[in-house]
Amino acid sequence: MTTIATSEIGATGLSVTTLGIGGAPLGNNVPDDKEHLAIAAVERAYEAGIRYFDMAPIYGLGRAERRIGSALAGMPRDEFVISTKVGRLLEFSGGSKSADPDVVFDWSRDGVMRSLEESLERLGMDRVDIALLHGPQDHYEAAIGEAYPALADLRSQGVVTAIGAGMNEWEMPARFAREADFDCFLVAGRYTLLDQSALAEFLPLCEEKGISVILGGPYNSGILASDLSPEATYQYAKAPPDILDRARRIKSVCDLYGVPLNAAALQFGLAHPAVASTIPGVRGPSEVEDNVGAAERSIPDELWEALKLQGLLDESAPTP
Question: Deepest of 90, 113, 208, 245, by most Cβ within 10 A of its Cβ?
Fold first, then answer.
């Protein structure tokens, strides 16, 4: 087993491994007839020393939570950390569970409680460790006025250890940080080799307030772990030509120093003091092994200096 470093979430006393697993592909990108690959990915991650797994009810419409629960069923519960999300319920039309459910927004206290209860049922566990508001972009007032107090109460009662929000942007989490008492934020794709938009304002704010940041999408939904073909994906769509060109220029620097692009991408974000963990998504055990190898790869300081000199990396960005 690899020894993976750990980092505390805020001031909660809860520690996560700095390399975790993002659960979206386990539900969204692994079909039912390949479910064994999703379960094997989680088992391989655990064997490799990864102890943090992030889920959400809507990942595969419940499939991700069920699959990770199945994979971890025999593991000591105190040895791993689970985060899941609230704000979106899975509703079965007419009460029938023979078809896929609909996703319904619900930021009410009852909705939060029901969401967590249903997640626990799918996971087959008695608790989750971190509860996150899930993408409340158009629902700020309901999220901060109704869902946040419910999560804060659950934290004060010890039902969950940490609370936060998970989003594909940093602006609303920054607003949350200023207006409420959160322990962590999961921000996807906004602090990577291709997008450092969270660097100037958001990350210093979190560092100042002692709020931990979990980085989702360190590969920007695939491009930074790909062969950079014209079909490479960036932010869940085909990569625009300018992004593809920039990624290829970054790879050229990596090639010069004999470092795989995915290794630089994975390690970059962890150098910021506000960042506790990075959680690339996986679809099978081979991708877990790729990520563990990337996390362990030695990277010379000169690579980061070259990226900054060529204007490919913000000069103020901390580097490993």
Answer: 90
